[in-house]
Here is the input.
Amino acid sequence: VIGTSRGIGLGLVSYILSSNAECRVIATCRNPSSASKLTDLVNEYGKKRLIVLQLDTTSQDSYASLLSKLVEESIDKIDVVIANAGIVNRKTVLTSTVDDMMGVYTTNVVGTMLTMQAFNRFLVAAGPNSSKLMVIISSELGSIEKMAGKGSTSSPYRCSKCAVNMLAVSYAQEESFQGAGGKVLTVHPGEQTQTIIRFLVIN
Ligand SMILES: NC(=O)c1ccc[n+]([C@@H]2O[C@H](COP(=O)([O-])OP(=O)(O)OC[C@H]3O[C@@H](n4cnc5c(N)ncnc54)[C@H](OP(=O)(O)O)[C@@H]3O)[C@@H](O)[C@H]2O)c1
Here is the structure.
């Protein structure tokens, strides 16, 4: 699960650990030393079930060092990857700057693409009984149809989630992934609390 220091990512890690004793979870966050709630979960479930690794999705170097940590941990297969890390920018089309747009795109779109590139081989390598699932935490704000008539707010964020939806459709048709039986699930989590996570499939 990518982006787990707080919010939905943290909630997902907690939910997965508590609901399935067989599951081993790799949780990434930008600053493991300050992710105190994640540390609490490590103390509760142990380091074998919950591995916390550093990852900044805007940095290719960060992906490279994450991949070498996975080699150190002898992890070469993953059943489900959840691309959750994301940031919001609520400005309108006319008030957004280049930095507003590029900032959200770098984290939400490029970061998700790098996540697909980094973890594809782990999903492909998972056995025939694996779900081989790439879950993309998107948003209904990325739906052109749903945003008609909803004003111009959150324009950079909306555009980024719209692009993420297309990224998901494209990745699902990558030959190596599709050929191995990989699936992509794009979800709108809805207004959430850390304990109530409601997934609505939007693609
Ligand atoms: N909350 C909602 O109602 C809602 C609705 C629709 C969709 N979503 C989507 O759901 C996802 C999670 O949202 P949330 O509400 O849980 O947000 P949140 O509470 O702000 O948490 C965002 C998480 O993403 C991480 N993150 C941000 N930039 C990152 C980067 N460059 N590299 C790695 N991690 C990064 C944050 O880590 P740090 O602690 O290091 O900043 C944090 O763990 C997002 O993709 C969001 O767009 C949320």
In short: The chain has a mean pLDDT of 93. The chain has seven helices and six strands.
